[in-house]
Amino acid sequence: PQGSEKAKTFVHAFLKRSMPKMKDEAIQDMLTRKAVVLEHYPKKKAKQKRKKTKGFTAKQRRELRLFEIEPEQQRYAIFLPLHELWKQYIRDLCHGLKPDAQPHMIQGKLLKADLHGAIVTVTKSKCPSYVGITGIILQEFKHVFKIITKEDKLKVVPKLNNVFSLELDGFISYIYGSKFLLRASERSAKKFKLKGTIDL
């Protein structure tokens, strides 16, 4: 063990190195009080800003053709399993579509449901060439439906000024496209009025 003088010398030298700006008198004063508080200045770490991941812009999506269906994939038979999945999804959503179910309740759920895979028919339109188009909805955008017909033709049908019908287990529902100008993700939160007239 070191002697007391050597210990004092070591502590004095240590304090001198640790606190170079402090005078010898101040160091000696701290030693006489037997309490030593070493000053420590931690370096402040610069906060790293989190970069937000940005998705593609609408222009980039168009250029990359992200939502386009390749011609060889435009076949009605390919999407029949999707329609079967959609029917099961609607049955689960409407608790089985029982005969005693209230039509307005089913209609309300269908208006908010995902329609990808549903078979729809254009029943009324301001443009006569759209009337009678029947097929599976492959894509739904804010203003249009993309429908694949039994003839393996991909039709882009606007929602505006068109009335669509869809049938499932004997229940027929009509969709007024002019009141349906929303993206599929936005419809789930919208409140639809079940009554009203639509002018075509």
TrEMBL record:
Coiled-coil segments on the chain, per record: none
GO molecular function term, any single one: ribonuclease P RNA binding
Gene for this chain: Pop4
UniProt cross-references to InterPro entries, sorted A to Z: RNase_P/MRP_Rpp29-subunit (IPR016848), RNase_P/MRP_Rpp29_sf (IPR036980), Rof/RNase_P-like (IPR023534), Rpp29/RNP1 (IPR002730)
Taxonomic placement: Eukaryota, Metazoa, Chordata, Craniata, Vertebrata
Organism of provenance: Cnemophilus loriae (Loria's bird-of-paradise)
Chief place of localization: nucleus
Family listed: Belongs to the eukaryotic/archaeal RNase P protein component 1 family.
Pfam families in the cross-refs: RNase_P-MRP_p29
Keywords per UniProt: Nucleus, Phosphoprotein, tRNA processing
Location of this chain's protein in the cell: Nucleus, Nucleolus
Oligomeric and partner information: Component of nuclear RNase P and RNase MRP ribonucleoproteins. RNase P consists of a catalytic RNA moiety and 10 different protein chains; POP1, POP4, POP5, POP7, RPP14, RPP21, RPP25, RPP30, RPP38 and RPP40. Within the RNase P complex, POP1, POP7 and RPP25 form the 'finger' subcomplex, POP5, RPP14, RPP40 and homodimeric RPP30 form the 'palm' subcomplex, and RPP21, POP4 and RPP38 form the 'wrist' subcomplex. All subunits of the RNase P complex interact with the catalytic RNA. Several subunits of RNase P are also part of the RNase MRP complex.
Function noted in UniProt: Component of ribonuclease P, a ribonucleoprotein complex that generates mature tRNA molecules by cleaving their 5'-ends.
Descriptive protein name: Ribonuclease P protein subunit p29
Gene Ontology CC annotations of this record: nucleolus; ribonuclease MRP complex; ribonuclease P complex
UniProt key word Hydrolase: no
GO BP of this protein: rRNA processing; tRNA 5'-leader removal
